[in-house]
Specification:
Layout: E1 4-9, E2 12-17, H1 27-41, E3 46-51, H2 62-67, H3 72-91, E4 95-100, E5 103-105, H4 107-112, E6 117-120, E7 125-127, H5 141-149, H6 151-160, E8 164-165, H7 166-171, E9 177-178, H8 182-196, H9 199-211, H10 217-231, H11 235-246
Parallel strand pairs: 2-3, 3-4, 4-6, 5-7, 6-9
Antiparallel strand pairs: 1-2, 7-8
Helix pairs in contact: 1-3, 5-6
Length: 247
């Protein structure tokens, strides 16, 4: 059985991490995730990223990493796959909704920072043990986490490496929603996006938000103007204007 399952219906994709009770990440699993997100990018307006079992993922497969001891090229390939997954997720033109539950540890949590929306169940527990293990963070988390929760809180999470409960993570802004019925809320949000939000405008908006994260105000205004002009003759916009004028 593959470690990652991908399916798509009505422009809503579903990527499920399915590698046993703890869903540890090795090179093969990361490559399968990269492939799944690349396939999804070709057709999905929204994709749900989930995991089977009691835990979303405990992060890097420690047994696999032990096998890589002394294998510089193997460790490099493994580390590079984490970074490539971040590139593919951030470059996805649709909306990635990730659903976290159980333990979300290390690189597994760092992957979640590249999702557009983060939903979590009340049993979610987060821990970044990298520094206590003498290793380092990945997946652009040293940039993304401060952008999401602020520099002070990011330092607290990353430098202290203490466990975060679901409530505390919500309090500091790591999640968009804490959900009693995680699957149902993810599906309802995906259906809302697929039904009511124009695909082209959505793609351009996501690109603007990413591109303007460190742009000046003048650069941002210029880019927004370019996109508005690009959409001025877009069928969805023209149909809306026509419908409004007829009323």
């Amino acid at each position: 059985m593959d470690n990652v399952h991908y399916s798509s219906s009505d422009r809503i994709g579903e990527i499920i991490l399915q590698r046993g009770k703890h869903n540890p990440l090795d090179l093969e699993t990361l490559q399968q995730l990269i492939s799944a997100f690349e396939r999804s990018a070709e057709q999905d307006k929204c994709v749900l990223f989930k995991a089977s079992g009691p835990n979303f993922t405990v992060g890097a497969d420690i047994k696999y990493m032990h096998q890589l001891a002394g294998d510089t090229s193997g460790f490099s390939a493994f580390s590079a796959a984490f970074q490539q997954l971040t590139r593919v997720m951030l470059g996805h033109p649709g909306i990635i909704i990730i659903g976290l539950h159980g333990w979300v540890v290390g690189g597994g949590f760092e992957i979640s920072l590249s999702a557009d929306l983060r939903f979590a169940s009340p049993d979610t527990r987060i821990k970044l043990p990298e520094l206590s293990l003498g290793t380092m963070f990945s997946n652009a988390s040293t940039k993304l986490l401060p952008q999401i929760v602020g520099m002070g809180r990011a330092k607290e999470v990353m430098l202290l490496g203490q466990e975060l409960s679901a409530d505390r993570a919500l309090q500091i802004g790591l999640y968009n929603r804490l959900c009693d019925d995680l699957d149902a809320e993810m599906q309802a949000t995906a259906e809302l996006i697929a039904r009511e939000i124009d695909g082209k405008a959505l793609q351009l908006a996501k690109r603007l938000i990413h591109d303007n994260a460190e742009a000046t105000i003048e650069e941002t205004l210029h880019r927004e103007l370019e996109v508005m002009e690009e959409l001025s003759d877009h069928p969805a916009f023209l149909d809306t204007i026509r419908s409004f004028s007829e009323k």
